[in-house]
Amino acid sequence: MFVQSRRVAALALAACAASACTVKEEQPSSSASGTPATATPAPTAANVVTIDATDFAFAAPDTVPAGLTTIRLVTSPGREMHHATLVKLTDGKTFADFAAAMKAGTHPMWALPVGGPNPPAPGGVAEVVQSLEPGDYAIVCYVPSADGVPHFAKGMIRALTVVDNGAAAGNGSVAAAELPAADIIMTLSDYAFETDVPLTAGKHVIRVETKAAQPHEVVLAELAPGKTVQDLVAWMEKQEGPPPGKPIGGVAGLMPGTAAVFPVDLAPGEYAMICFIPDAKDGKPHFVHGMMKQVKVS
């Protein structure tokens, strides 16, 4: 159910990125206007993990130390959009177990979404800072190609082991309070996005907190002039004509009670926040339940 719901929504954003996003030279982060962003919340993050996403593979370390970590997703120029969703494997399950379940077309309940960078435009870079607990993980790209086949089925699924170094801080727990300082707090609930202050143009560090009964995410997209978040969602249904927006990052699915931060450099304009996670009750993407929001940045 998780995979199927993500396929529909991600396919639309993939087509959007393919036809409208500007490819930029690799930089530490991507801005909404296409100019490189330099805001990085890394000073308090001891570990930096770079994940290189190409068509269709991840290049990443096999093991990383537990604790506060900057996860940097570097995507290749081209038509395909990628994200790097981190999935924590529980109940003693292994990556082989997870890969077998995904190949069979199911997303097991013991595989928990725990963050990671949501898509930038192809050729861009997205960052998330979060705390990683020791254990077995998978790095997954759920985005499908235009042929409808999700990228993980084409090879974009990779094992990751987080090793205990005595620095684990509760898997991004809000209570741990070890994330870098943020100037904007975004709360994800059932089913809404709320920020403690309005978004404004310039560089920011956004702290995303999930205070809900089920996982949520935020995909941040810059809307084309004159377009609305409703236009973007409606366009996803048929994917006809020019797309009304482009993705610029965000935080992938977070379990309840967890948090992560990500840097942005916003240009003035209209932006969309969307959650594509399927609902625990009916399987419909959360934006169907109203978890989409348009904000003006000035």
Structure explained in plain terms:
- With 298 residues, the chain is mostly beta strands.
- Strand 12 and strand 13 (192-195) form a beta hairpin.
- The protein has helices at 2-20, 95-103, 229-238; strands at residues 29-30, 36-37, 47-54, 57-59, 63-65, 67-75, 85-89, 111-113, 125-132, 135-140, 157-163, 184-189, 192-195, 202-210, 216-223, 245-254, 259-266, 269-274, 292-297.
- It is built from 3 helices and 19 strands.
- The strands form 5 sheets. It has a 5-stranded mixed β-sheet, covered by helices on one side. The protein has a 4-stranded mixed β-sheet with strand order 4-3-6-9, with no helix packed on it.
- The protein is 13% helix and 38% strand.
SSE topology sketch:
Elements (H helix, E strand, L loop, with lengths): L1 H19 L8 E2 L5 E2 L9 E8 L2 E3 L3 E3 L1 E9 L9 E5 L5 H9 L7 E3 L11 E8 L2 E6 L16 E7 L20 E6 L2 E4 L6 E9 L5 E8 L5 H10 L6 E10 L4 E8 L2 E6 L17 E6 L1
Parallel strand pairs: 3-6, 5-11, 12-14
Antiparallel strand pairs: 1-2, 3-4, 6-9, 7-8, 7-10, 10-11, 12-13, 14-17, 15-16, 15-18, 18-19
In short:
By secondary structure, the protein is mainly beta.
Q: Could you tell me the strand content as a percent range?
A: 35-45%
Major beta sheet summary: 5 strands, mixed
- Tell me the Rg in angstroms: 17 Å
Residue-averaged pLDDT, rounded?
Answer: 82
Number of helix segments? 3
N-to-C series of helices and strands: HEEEEEEEHEEEEEEEEHEEEE
Overall 3D geometry? Answer: globular
Q: What order do the strands of the largest sheet run in, or round the barrel if closed?
A: 5-11-10-7-8
Number of strands: 19
Helix content: 10-25%
- Specify the structural class: mainly beta
Terminal Cα span:
38 Å
* Low confidence ranges: 1-45, 168-177
